[in-house]
Amino acid sequence: MKEAFRRIYGTYPVGVWAAPGRVNLIGEHTDYNDGFALPIAIPQHTLVAARHRQDGRLRLHSAQGGGPVVDLDLARLTPGAVTTWAAYPAGVVWALLEAGHRIGGADLHIDSTVPTGAGLSSSAALECAVAFAYNDLYGLGLSAPALALLAQRAENGFAGVPCGAMDQLASACCTDGAALHLDIRAGAHEQVPFAPQAQGMSLLVIDTRVKHDLGDGAYAALRSGCEQAARQLGLEALRDLAPADLPRAVKALPAHLVPLVRHAVTENGRVAEAVSHLRAGHVAALGPILTEGHASLRDDFKISCAESDLVVDTALAHGALGARMTGGGFGGSVIVLADEGRVEGVRLAVTAAFRAAGYQEPDIFPVSPAAGARRIA
Ligand code: GLA
To answer: What is the arithmetic mean of pLDDT over 252-259?
Structure first.
């Protein structure tokens, strides 16, 4: 990273920062309902080499972006002004300025191993790596959760994606060997040990290669459906609906909002259940919870797709303990929990099923919980 930075900018960076992608074990589409989630950081991460500038310019270069250095004026950073990948790093700088932090410009060189469009939070990884770099470059002293919320603000306010805070909190706050139990309303998180390998299991990511795009309006529509349902029920957020009140809520709501509410309420319950199993050391007990979560996203939220369903069904038919789509939906990745002895069978079966269906070959790799964002050099 340091040599690449020097080739681009003619001088060495001050440091290098890393922030990971994530997979969410359970708790999907609950973050913007003030609810709960349980993501892990994955080993794939984004690196940012950075150096301050005194002239108020933000220069950005990405190994993946391929193009020349993007040169922006800090004083002219406004939402909508940048529409390429550069909107994510520029958005973080905009969010810091908007929050009143005293910062200047910077030269940034970015490189990443997080696949884009795979539902693994490549944008959160990019935002968090930049936020952590700026925090150190300008001595801001902000905490990891505070940086995550600034990164979310960048995505909402600058890049125009109305996401919740899960991805950025996962990238910023996860630790090696643990899942992150998030309580979004309380702004609280705790680490829950998660080590499937220690119990002879493996967590696979199967990227269907169906590109999902949160900016396409479907995500925003789901979010506003949930918010509308909460308003109609007189609640601050769907987080406030207890499972016992679900039958009453179902009667009070228009039919099209009922499945959204059912998913949000049952999904929060699945997070609580998953956490108590992990705390008791029962990793395998997570399996059925994952599979139930998938059914809820497929049947109630209606955000799965044929490719993700094929992965889940094939993995289960070949002995997986559980499987579900992860992330925003409409493609992206599926996670599969399986005993080590079943992993190769699942891999071969999913690959063969995709070939038979005429789908693109999926990308299949194991993950274990990795560290969150940090300075690495
Ligand atoms: C995307 C969003 C998150 C969250 C998930 C669904 O990843 O960025 O905020 O809403 O979808 O759980």
So the answer is: 97
Nearest alpha-carbon partner for 229 in 202, 204, 249, 208: 249
**If you classify domain 196-367 with CATH, what class do you get?**
alpha beta
CB of residue 164 inside a 6 A radius of ligand 1: yes
Using most ligand atoms within 8 A of CB, pick from 26, 116, 167, 182 the residue to mutate for ligand 1.
Answer: 167
Once rounded to an integer, what is the mean pLDDT over residues 197-205?
97
According to CATH, the topology of domain 2-193+371-375 is Ribosomal Protein S5; domain 2 (3.30.230)
Q: Is the CB of 293 under 6 A from ligand 1?
A: no
Q: What letter does residue 119 receive in the DSSP assignment? A: S
Measuring from atom 8 of ligand 1, which residue has the nearest CA?
A: 163
- With 0-12 CB in 10 A as exposed, 13-18 as middle and 19+ as buried, what is 285? middle
What's the whole-number mean pLDDT along residues 126-132? 99
CA of 73 relative to ligand 1 center, distance in Å? 30
Closest CA to 192 of 17, 25, 15, 13: 25
Q: Quick check: CB of 31 below 6 Å from ligand 1? A: yes
pLDDT over threshold 80, residue 36: yes
Q: How far is the CA of 161 from the centre of ligand 1 (A)?
A: 10
CA atoms of 120 and 350, how far apart (whole Å) = 20
Q: Is 328 in the pocket of ligand 1 (CB under 6 A)?
A: yes
- pLDDT at 216 > cutoff 80: no
Neighbours of 67 (CB within 10 A): 11
**pLDDT tens figures, 94-123:** 999 999 999 999 999 999 999 999 999 999
Q: Catalytic residue positions? A: 167
Interval 343-361: pLDDT, tens: 999 999 999 999 999 999 9
Q: Is 28 in the pocket of ligand 1 (CB under 6 A)?
A: yes
pLDDT of residue 215: 58
Where does the pLDDT of residue 65 fall: very low under 50, low under 70, confident under 90, or very high at 90 and above? confident
**Domain segments of the chain as ranges:** 2-193+371-375, 196-367
Report how far apart, in Å, the C-alpha atoms of 333 and of each of 22, 34, 84, 177, 205 are. Answer: 11, 24, 23, 21, 6
Query: With contact defined as beta carbons under 8 Å apart, do 126 and 161 qualify?
Result: no
Give the per-residue pLDDT at 66: 81
